[in-house]
Amino acid sequence: MRTEPGQGANRLVLLVILAVSLYGCYVLVRPFLEPIVLAILVGMLAHPIHHRVERRLGGRQSVAALITCVGLCLVVLLPTILLLAAVLEQGISYSLIVKEWATPENVQTVMSRPSLVKVQSWLTDVLPAGTLEAENIRSRALSLASSLGGKFA
Fold this sequence. Notes:
By secondary structure, the protein is an all-alpha fold.
């Protein structure tokens, strides 16, 4: 088999262009690789269930696909909704606890602890004047708790 002069260079150029194109495709698809792999795994796990549902329905593929999709959505969404409800409940209760706790006496008690007195003396030099006053800390804690409670609600 004879090769024309310069044909090896042409092949090399084409291989370089192919490599650059493949890399460009990889960069384009890279953000979607994790969802693609997850979808493949869910599809592989759901296929036997879909096959059983299809057999029980007498070969009705569309109805079996609908039932399988609804079942998978419920399997994914129900735990997610329950977890979200628990997080919301915790956030709202945290907000209420902070509102109840944030009295001037409680803030002053925390600020008078020996470990915090040392940090407070150092921070007084660094932070603007009045930042570490008990009333300022209390008002910031209350505003943060209110905003977090509102966002959770």
